[in-house]
Amino acid sequence: MINSLFLINPSGEIFLEKHWKSVVSRSVCDYFLEAKEKALEPEDVPPVIHTPHHYLISIYRDKLFFLSVIQTEVPPLFVIEFLHRVAEMIQDYFGECSETVVKDHMVMVYELLEEMLDNGFPLATESNVLKEMIRPPTILRSVVNTLTGTSNVGDTLLTGQLSTIPWRRAGVRYTNNEAYFDVVEEIDAILDQSGTTVFAEIQGVVEACVKLSGMPDLTLSFMNPRLLDDVSFHPCVRYKLWESERVLSFIPPDGNFTLMTYHVNAQNLVAIPVYVKQSISFFECGSDGRLDVTVGPKQTMGKTVEGVMVTVHLPKTILSINLTATQGSYTYDNGTKVTTLWDIGKLNPQKLPNLRGSLSLQAGAPKPEENPSLNIDLKIQQLAISGLKVNRLDMFGEKYKPFKGVKYITKAGKFQVRT
Amino acid sequence: ELTSYKSFVEQACIVHFLISFSPSRNEDLKEMLESNKESLKLEAMKRVVGLIAKGKNASELFPAVVKNVASKNIELKKLVYVYLVRYAEEQQDLALLSISTFQRALKDPNQLIRASALRVLSSIRVPIIVPIMMLAIKEAASDMSPYVRKTSAHAIQKLYSLDQDQKELLIEVIEKLLKDKSTLVAGSVVMAFEEVCPDRIDLIHKNYRKLCNLLVDVEEWGQVVIISMLTRYARTQFTSPWKEDGVFDEHNERAFYESDEEKTRDETEAKPYMMDPDHRLLLRNTKPLLQSRNTAVVMSVAQLYWHLAPKNEVSIVTKSLVRLLRSHREVQYIVLQNIATMSIQRKGMFEPYMKSFYVRSTDATHIKSLKLEILTSLANEANISTILREFQTYVKSQDKQFAAGTIQAIGRCATNISEVTDTCLNGLVLLLSNRDETVVAESVVVIRKLLQIQPTQHSDIIKHMAKLFDNITVPMARASILWLMGEYCERVPKIAPDVLRKMAKSFTSEEDIVKLQTVNLAAKLYLTNSKQTKLLTQYILNLGKYDQNYDIRDRTRFIRQLIVPNDKNGALSKYAHRILLAPKPAPVLESAYKDRDRYQLGTLSHTINTKASGYLELSDWPAVAPDQSVRNVEVIEPTVKSKPAKSSDDKFYSDSGEEEEKGSGSSSSEDGSSSSSSEESGSDAESHVQKNSSQTSEESDKSSSQSEKSSSESDSEKKERKTKTPLQKKTIFNEESWTYVTKQQHTKTIFVNVINQHSVLQTFSYSHWSTLCVSLFTQLCPLSLAFPLQLSGPAFVPEKSHDLLHRMTGKGLSAQYQFPRQPCLYQPTMVSVQISLTNTTDHPLEQIHIGDRSPTGLNIHCFNTIECLEPEASVTVFMGIDFNDSTQAANFQLCTKEDHFSVSIQPAIGELLLPITMTELDFRKEQGKLLGMNESSATITMAAENMTSQPISRPVATVANLGMVPSSQDNVHRFAGKTANSGAVVLVTVELRGESTALITINTEKSVMGSMLLRDLKLALAQA
């Protein structure tokens, strides 16, 4: 299936290659690099490229290209999904996924890739299984390793892969048994000039951090499961029980994982927590424009809106800007995309933050056709905007009493204001 | 000074560069690898793997690396494996040195070691080891551990890609593995099936129901593969569930207004079409997978429903597909492509989710255009106003390519929905005054297409465009306007000639496409309005005549002949009007995804819109369903390992609730859980049998099946879980039941053809060798295994070598031979001889090989010709000689390019034997058969200090290649061997009597050999 993998940085340097079948010369990447040159943004590089002898499927993530080489028919999503798992695995092991991290842990990444695929077919992609085979580096361990000459490769024989629950390793022991669940909801919305909602929906995800000894069997139930319209689960969740009783019953993986993602019923009106008043105009004759943006709280259910950030995608012809913010600070980025990032922070209903000032265009540039769009970022602690509530968490199979906790948080997802 | 400093730095850099890339860098790695310190080796291997990861060549380190393959250090070993798999293909011969290590590991009692050995062994892409791989795969396919079986399924594909000739044998293994009931194996074996023999649908029949039922518990990647295979299977085995659409159209219409419930009942009862229960089983069992977190699984279920489900059921996949749009950009891309294809045929499916396809300014360009495509397909009378409003926003986008795409989309909407054609046209005309060229150009092109559809009422639009003509610079747009003028010149009789006049002025500076349309316009005007335009036309035709572009010259010539009447072409010019001004059919504006449905959804071929290599065509539904009974499974399957797979084998969340779903028909019969009674008699009987057979299962299997049982789980009873979980940890299989022959592992055999050409070998000491080369021989020669006597390793290998060719007689070429006492690989009847050739001359010797031999019937396996032997160099080669159990010398010629030297090898009698192991009991039994004339004995006198067993066995082993037989008496020593050629047993007994005498007895049917051996032994022991 997957023949080879190349990791390429944004400047086009191939800094890691791995082959699972016969070696494919790295010159095959030239087709990709050509396409990359053509694309304005790295995101615009087509994910599937057809070359005379191979098919190149790539993803762009964390400022890195993961390029896989395929020789025969294979579902493209299969490859894409796998490549994202690779990125997630690197993230999981080393805390971040970046060129430097991969270069620093070249051998380990290579070994991990070796374990993940056999002959191009996924063999072990579960983080728990991989971690049993190749232990992630920690500062303490690397000190111990240098002193004692021991290694990161697990010397015990792994069992995870063999069990019927491949996502959980055997013999887990904790002194403090705890299970935390974060219900994170994101609002995707498009608002038009007048502030009316063109499109809005809520996507949620339940992230779990479970550190429980032995083989616990958990059941998580919601107060209002009817809200959930469409769900997808971690493989550990028993689908049948969800179908019949609307509870999540599962033997959890050890550590952090995504338990479920959900989509809230589209019929429910989505509460939009903030409103944005904006006026951006360019003068017909001169090469000037004005910008005036105000953000205020709308439906916040009595909670404070934090971490508000506004990104303005300005036209390319902008030469300079001169703005003043009543709250927070703004930065101006004049790269391939001209953007202004206004970091507001906490939203104070008494004193609404405002950003205003003038924009100057390059001399002779025509008045921009379209006004720039705004992207909003925000965070509301202790609130799931859909109103979803966890009812209870029960544990079977083990005797101890775990410490349990649920946290709610609402964020802006793809939240865009057209102007 | 500064510049000189600079140049110094530069030089230093260059020097540094050279140092770091010179071979010396790898030299130090080599040293580290050959050191005794584990930590150094490990460090070196890490650096080597680092080189591989960076794509640098590290192949010259192969000999140094491969020596560490048998290391005890797991990390080091893993790194060596990584290296091996990477370079084995390039260094095939050297790679063979490692094979024996894996072969030994294949017999390891630990399943993980067996699996990893098979994994690496099969990844070594060296054609010579194909038979070994084949054997290993076959063995692993019936391994007790499902994990090893999974690995063997992977190995099948690797072997197949290495050697396609193995197909038939591999299919047998696949067939066997398909019967496997472990979820671990299912995905991998189906993958192998798809790769090796996707056309052997017949292998699936019996496993179809099992695969359907196991599907939920298979790991996610396997699910994708199985679903795609089952999709193809279903299309060949079931009849179309879509039939009613065509035949019962009317009926359907009516059903539409009835409630859903009635409709489904309609389908099952009233209509002649009855869905095969197996077809239904597949649809039902894949549905939960729509909730998978793996986007590839969701997509594959979606395509399964699209290709297999009745039309009214397909829409259940919509929600899940829309969910995938929240995922990564690349996932969006693929999913949107598939939705684009789906939405053309089934608008209704995605219409409720229209807003999910709204474009954000931050979307990537290809995502934007796909969303646009889908929105256009979804447009209908009811939602067009919403969509057009949305499009208005897009047209203003800063991404001009996207804006142009939107204009095309508007054009498509306008043609598809006649109500809005006018609105769209007006909107597009407004865009003509846009500042951006591409937008204007695209608008012109789209307007032209729209006008062609309804030309009658739009002369003012044409006039407007003529006005704008001067400001439009994009060639395509200019050409489009010119064409419009020409086509509808009668509607704008005043303007058209004026446009032509302008064009005549600027003709030479226009683009080719504009020139062509100018010529066109001129011709049409000439025909309709020759009074005003005759001169203009001629002027333009003259310009065209001398144009640089031959297309334009050709066109001009053609037009001139057509429209300007002269004597020769009178007939044609009569029709000129009809030719040029014929009513032209309006262009059809349609989706680029219209024809994509010829490919199976979700495939690579669908994405790239061409047939990818290895794409498997989805067949059409058969008109008549093939025999359904082929999928029925017999009650008992005779399996070798006879593990009467528990229904719950190692399914984790599999539903024993299967039975609650009525009408599942025979679906549950195959693995319907034996614990719960099902309502069907068939499955009832079967489960009964299963119970029985499980009781009779072998002792050794019991523990494994028990532990597997414990890990199985029924969803319904929560209480039971408490008691079960502790048991789950015991999923350890019974290792003791795994028996294998340890003795064989120590057999030191030599894989002659591997090594005889390689001087590298010389770096290996003998002891190295014996650890490296193991039971290869026995594997390659299954015949010798059949011999009841177990071959063993030599007890002692004498270092003594004999002169074959002296350097004086050999004109500088010297040769020595010795007997390595390894079974010969080529033929078990041969004795292997190791020959060291040394060149003592000062010039290279070329083409060293073996020439004529005598007696002529002498059976020799020659070593491969040595192309060149450098001065002072030496090389060790191996050959096999069949001495025919006699000490008669083997004479042959050793040839170089120039010379022939007659040489002869005379073996000592002891070298014609091969050691065997047997118990004392067997020894006596054999001895009893070989009495009388087959026995020869002698009494000798030996020194007193040699009376312990150690010194006895040493001289005996030196003389003859015999194996020790354990003895219960202190004073009796027994040795056993067989003759190389005939395999006759040779038994030697040394009995110590009293102070210094010993009785030597030799029993063998080869009495001549017996007496010769006796003589040698007498000599040796007396000396001792």
Please characterize this protein's 3D structure.
The complex is a heterodimer of chains A (419) and B (1024). Chain A is an alpha+beta fold. Chain A is built from seven helices and 23 strands. A nine-stranded mixed β-sheet of chain A has the order 11-13-9-8-23-21-16-19-18, with no helix packed on it. Chain A starts with a strand and ends with a strand. Chain B is built from 47 helices and 16 strands. In chain B, the strands form three sheets. In chain B, strands 1, 11, 12, 13, 14, 15 and 16 form a seven-stranded antiparallel β-sheet that branches. Chain B has a five-stranded antiparallel β-sheet with strand order 2-3-4-8-6. The longest helix of chain B is centred in the first third of the chain and has 20 residues, at 2-21. The chains are: A alpha+beta (419), B alpha+beta (1024). At the A-B interface, strand 2, strand 4, helix 2, helix 4 and strand 7 of A face helix 3, helix 5, helix 7, helix 9 and helix 11 of B.
The largest sheet of chain A, given as strand count, sense and whether it forms a barrel, is: 9 strands, mixed
- Secondary-structure element string of chain A: EEHEEEHHHEEHHEEEEHEEEEEEEEEEEE
Which of globular, elongated, flat, extended, rod-shaped describes the shape of chain B? elongated
Helix content of chain A: 10-25%
Low-confidence stretches of chain B: 18-22, 245-270, 636-652, 654-788
Sheet with the most strands, sense and barrel status of chain B: 7 strands, antiparallel
Beta-strand residue percentage of chain A: 35-45%
Q: Report the average pLDDT across residues of chain B.
A: 76
Number of helices of chain B: 47
Radius of gyration of chain B: 42 Å
Q: What's the average pLDDT of chain A?
A: 84
Q: What is the quaternary state of this protein?
A: heterodimer
Structural class of chain A: alpha+beta
Amount of helix of chain B: 40-55%
Q: Can you list the strand order of the major beta sheet of chain A? A: 11-13-9-8-23-21-16-19-18
